[in-house]
Request: fold
Amino acid sequence: MAQTHEPIVIKKKVGHAGHHGGAWKVAYADFVTAMMALFIVLWMMNASKQVQVAVGGYFKDPRGFDKVVGTNRTGAGDYLAMKKEDMQKLKEQLLQSIHHLDPLDKLKDQIEITITQEGLRIELMESAKGTFFELGSTKPTPALVELLLVLSQELGKLPNNISIEGHTDSNPYSGLKNYDNWDLSTDRANEARRLMQAEGIRPGQVTQVRGFADQRLRLPQKPEDPSNRRISVIVQYQVQGGSEIAPMLPSSNTTSSGNAANSGNATSPGNATSPKQ
Reply:
């Protein structure tokens, strides 16, 4: 009897490829990162010069990013903290604006703008007849009102804080009893503050109003010179953390700034006149 053999079936097990894990996720992340970089570059190409400098400065010095205003700390838009070169540009811009106001340069000898260690100092100096204030009074002249309008519109765009100082010459005030050069210098500075805040300076931008009487003469060798009677507007530097560089005050004059705190209580001389102030 013939034997029958069952067919032998050989089954080959084909193993599946090993699990490829998250390799696709890495590739996708690289793609998204590249797209984000592309959009940042496109945005930077259309951003202002100040923003480009700020972003570039962060990558150069990440720890110094808080020197740049326009973050949540200051909320001042995309402005940069002003450096000395920025102050020079601001000075030129202000001089151009003043020239448009005074094309014949009649006030040229009464306005002086300098860059100091405290910031940009704008000096508005009196003449013998009284250019910016009526003699012996806190009443501003039309020339001062127009000039402060121009300055306020320009300075109000800046993130920098502003301080305002009042100064007199060494002639004693003779308009009112119990009212002297300390009161006059402080009240004139405060009047300038009111005018500037009404014409463009932001609320809170003016941080100091100080009266120095004749303690900081512009011309110490000529203490009675009319140019010693002046209003000083200082655009202060901004430094890390939004604080300001403290001015280097002579120790002998430090008590003068304390009079500014009483500026709100000083009695205005009204229309009192004096040929000396």
Summary: Residues 65-81, 240-275 have pLDDT under 50 and may be disordered. The chain has two domains: 24-60, 84-265. Helices lie at 23-46, 49-60, 84-101, 142-155, 181-199. Residues 135 and 273 are 5 Å apart (CA to CA).
